[in-house]
Design goal:
Elements (H helix, E strand, L loop, with lengths): L3 H12 L5 H13 L1 H17 L11 H12 L1
Helix pairs in contact: 2-3
């Protein structure tokens, strides 16, 4: 069985289906039993879906300024 570290190192290739079939099967088994890796896989997959969405989203008025203020406070 693969370790969490091995899953994390191969997660991008796993999602892209650019991985050896044997390793893919091991990762799939690991994801069924490891909640932490499963949540990470699901979250990363969702981020990629959102990032590849061609639709545009309206940002609320003043959001950019508030975001920059928070960033400036923490830097």
């Amino acid at each position: 069985m693969v370790s969490c570290e091995h899953v994390l190192n191969n997660l991008s290739n796993f999602i892209d289906a650019d991985i050896d079939p044997a390793l893919r099967a091991e990762i799939e088994t690991h994801l069924k039993t490891c909640r932490r890796c499963s949540v990470l896989h699901d979250s990363l997959r969702k981020v990629l879906i959102i990032a590849s969405d061609e639709r545009t989203f309206e940002i609320p008025s003043g959001y950019s300024e508030r975001l920059h203020d928070v960033i400036d406070e923490h830097l």
